[in-house]
Amino acid sequence: MKDITIESNLKSLIPLSLGRKEESSVNGDSFGKLLKNSMEEVNQLQNEADRSIEQLVAGESKNLHETMIAMEKANISFRLMMEVRNKIIEAYQDVMRMQV
Asked: Is 61 left (phi over 0), alpha (psi -120 to 50) or beta?
């Protein structure tokens, strides 16, 4: 299973003023790609947890520990994604409330 690492995804958000030059940061689509990649990782973890549960129930696997770990990884990644979504919505609402 692939571990979720926020650090690797956040590296693409470092401003260009700090000396990091990355083509995707210049054209402005890195944030969208970051969100898309993160959601794909969460989906992949959810699918792996589902497969692990199905194998355990079908008797193909007798490793309860790995199934529980896969379920918790999927749960934690989903909760993190929801918190990020909530913060993005909150930031959007704050910007919309600003008076110009």
From this structure: beta
